[in-house]
Design brief:
The complex is a heterodimer of chains A (about 400) and B (about 525). With about 400 residues, chain A is of the alpha/beta class. Chain A contains 14 helices and eleven strands. In chain B, helix 3 runs parallel beside helix 4. Classes of the chains: A alpha/beta (about 400), B alpha+beta (about 525).
Amino acid sequence: MASGIRDKVAILGMGCSRFGERWDCGPDELMLEAFNEALGDAGVASNRIEAAWLGVCLEENNVGKTAGPLAQALRLPRIAATRVENACATGTEALRGAAYAVAAGAYDIVLALGVEKLKDTGYGGLPARTRGVQNDLWLPNATAPGAFAQLASAYAAKHGVAMKDLKRAMAHVSVKSHANAALNPKAHLRNAITEEDVLKAATIAAPLGLYDCCGVSDGAACAILTTPEIAKSLKPGAEIVTIKALEVSVSNGEEQAFSAWDGAHIATAREAAARAYAAAGVTDPRRDIHMAEVHDCFSITETVLMEDLGFSPPGRAIHDVLDGVFDRDGALPVQPDGGLKCFGHPIGASGLRMVYEVYQQLLGRAGERQLGRIDRGLTHNLGGHPHQNVCAVAIVGRAGA
Amino acid sequence: MTSLTAAPRPGLLATSRYVPRLRLERAAVFEQHHWMAPGLRGLAKGRRAMASWDEDAVTMAVEAARTLGRALPDAAIDALTLASTTFPWADRLNAGVAAAAIGLAPSARVRDVTSSVRAALGELAAALAVPTGAGAHLVVAAERRIARPASAQELVFGDGSAAALVGAGTSIATLVAARSTHADLVDHFRETGRPHDYGWEERWVRDEGYLKIAVSTIQACLADAEVKAADVAHFALPAPLPRVNEAVAKRIGVPAAALVSTAHETVGDLGCAQPLAMLDVALRAAAPGALVLVAAFGSGCDALLLRRTDAPCPGDVPDDGKAETSYLKYLSFTGQLELEWGMRAEMDNKTALTAAWRDHARAARFEAGRCERCGTVQFPRTHVCVNPECRAQETQQPVSLAERPARVLSHTSDFLAYTPHPPFKFGHVDFEGGGRVLMEFADADVDELAVGVPLRMVYRVKDYDPNRGFRRYFWKATPDRAAAAIARESAAGLDARAASKQATADPATANGATTGVNT
């Protein structure tokens, strides 16, 4: 009988590059920046790393194929290295590969690194690209904002909410993330904005305006993982952070082709969260989860995720958002680092960046944006579109929590 | 020969027209040209039909054919002829693309005819002249001619299509006589590969072309039928030149009142499709027994004399469309103005022809699968049922979603995505009877998209591949404005009944049928 991953893997060290338009950096520099921080945090030499997982999503725009670019950039000593990709959930996928290898007892110390160099396309937003030769014959060549805007129209219709009220809640989500990122020196977008700024901004994909969309950034983030026992021996007396759950759910076409889905929620998020809560022993997410970093690629995504992750009852997310429940000083802070919205979204790095923030908050290292005592934090990383996607949910906490 | 003449001759079963939604205001065109072509002022009235960026002769032909298909769903069509001088494909059977989209059996005989605006009428005459077989012959003409900016043709031409179905059964008209003349009088020409026509002086075309070649052909047709010109009730003659049909009517002695509208004010001249379109207009107006004369001029002349029966003309007629005042949009849609679309427009739309053939029914016929075990309709059709309670393998029978009504589940108007007609409108669509597809909306206004809006499907160009000269087709959803209007009326009716319920009983306004609930 499988016993899951709870408390079998410890985070020995983490690193995260500054996110943003890093015109002077290629993926090599970004990877090294994150890696050196993690290595210093872990307190081990790089030759202790026995295997590595590299997460890159749009490799054709930056590093190219295989895990070779990671091994070359860090001059890893011909260890096993694997490149993984699961769209925007790639970062968590790298963490998952590494964590399960440690849990399996295959390795003692491993590296999970995600990187994305997006700002080499010549234009804003994510690159336009093929969906595969068969899909291209019929599937609309949708952009990400267009695909996630669908959620807003269906959510408003399903819950009988006026679009202007939904847009106010979405605006609050973005205002909150900008305010948080202003306190985060590594964040891409650090300017404070107002609800009026959001509502007056140019439409990108109705009803989403410019400030409803996350930043497109360059960056890298990584984790060095080991067993709790090795972590204790390497860092005697230090607080040990362990993985409580690491779950992935992938759409099988039901949302896309079966009429049961209402278009107003993320089915895989519910599935992955339910499994993660069971694994971590979370029975009341609103109480047991002390902070969350969710996949706020768009303000509407974060809003509906509050329900899908069990933080708000169905149809109540708008009210909780506007009541400030998810603000930095609210009952359940969400995106204290600014989220994808403002920390930025270098795709392959994002899942690891989320865990990085929970890790920093758990260890009291979050500087100006430090929350009160956190025992357990959740990350939710989504790849794809609302109707066809990958959702990864991780729960990370103190070893004893 | 006797066996042939003994077989019954087929009749005309139905006709139809398709006109794109956008109607370009000619005044808006003239406004841009008057500085150098003030002489166009006389033509700058009314509107001309303008194909959207995703329409071509094939897609418009499909729409005219589908209109007929809806009117006569039981017609066993075993032959399709597509006529156009503006086929998108020089070497790929245009009629084959259309035949797949309208769902003709692979055994149907399909062919293209081209290179003259009278190509379609000649085909109709031939179809009416041969003995009836088991199946019906569909003749469709479609045209999307692109005239040089500031030419008279730019204002005179329209985009659109028309169709005629010939076969055994209840006919709306029967052939009385037909005549054809070929003559290489070059009133205009267009070399293969060139975009624009080159024409000669209109007065010469009228005097030496219409008034001699067309007149003599029509007179011969009437003589064959032993019919006097004065007895012709409806005379349909395309007239891309001003007042030429009046002159022809006068010369042959057809009453001026018999002239059929060219729809110049609202649609424009549809080229190859114009004779069939005018025939459709004429037949719908004709009384039982009336004689209808239709002719087409170009490299000679075809003339057909038909007699209207007392059967009603089946099928719908085009609506009034939507006024378009952007001439620059017209130039862009027709590829005559290159705009800065940004780097997103650079995406390579190469089509894997192997994959396209493997799944050809999916794109051509909008083929979904219906699970025989649980009844779930699903798109795409796959090997494993999508219903989580079923999951049966190899149970999905092909079923087309093309003619099924649908509704909007979710939608957006996307200003980031590249489309030749921003914003890019798309969303999840739920079909009546099951089936859900994420698809593009065509001919939709941003403010009319809403959750629950009724939709119907149209066959369109999905993407162009300018690098290789290929285009791929797929179905798009368009607001079903007629269904929406019916829904509004029925909602208003409910409101009115609710209001009458609340009002104190007034015998003057109470409907007898509702008095039972009017308490």
